[in-house]
Amino acid sequence: MSAGSLAADAPAETPAGAPAPSYFPSASGFTLQQEPESIYAPPQPPREDEGLNEGGVHIDLTVRYMTDYVYRGLDFSEVGGAEDAPNLQIDGKISWDLGKLPHPFIGVFVNVYDSDPISRFQEVRPTFGVDWPIKPLLLSFGHNTYIYPERDELNTSEAYARIELDDAFLWSTERPILSPYIYGAYDYDLYNGWYLEAGLKHTFVFEDTGFTLTALADIAYVIGEQQYLAPGSNDDVGFQHYDIGLIANYSLNTLFNFSRRYGEFSLEGYLYYTDNIESDLRADRQIWGGVGIHFKY
Asked: Quick one: DSSP state of residue 97?
């Protein structure tokens, strides 16, 4: 056998970086062949939302302790109670994902205030409505009922609408930048007036740490809402209050390496500043905050 025929029978050198050849059995014995290409797609890295609840029912629950209960510019903790006495707040929501249709929800907010001289359960606020995500908008329509145990004369109800813009498409970013929103509620029961609010927020995400920090601000305008009328004033129209705040969120799933398949748990911290705008309208100047546990599934 000549040297030329030996060279012809020898396998060619494998190029650098190419997969190593494998031997496969054939009719004449083992032959040198490249491994056949797989018909399956190569494995992909895990998605950011992998393991989250993708079913039709979602739960959102927050339990927190706050130094004050400030709602729409009014500090309800000042009613016969001690300054900066703790308020236990429970805020829950169950929603149903109906795909492209509006998503119905029910929820309840409860404020428990031990220092209240009349009732520890200072406020119970059941709510229901629909959320309708139509990118880049999130539309919400709902109804709130305000129940003040042993203060039945203050009970009232309102219908509301809210529109929020996912502005990520404006800036070509992965996440929203300001998420501006407009909210309007009409009290048809006790006060027969309008509460209007506009606001925005930005969330700073600290990658791979499980920590986010959200800065927010809002401003309110009222029309005919007698509960916001300052003593001695008869002008119930105007800018009533503004808020600025920070919400820190730390993922307990990240801390304990706990799968999000069973829900997302996080520890939250809150810090707000609220102040009055027009002297003819009631609003309290207050720095307030607290801590809470948030569960989402």
From this structure: -
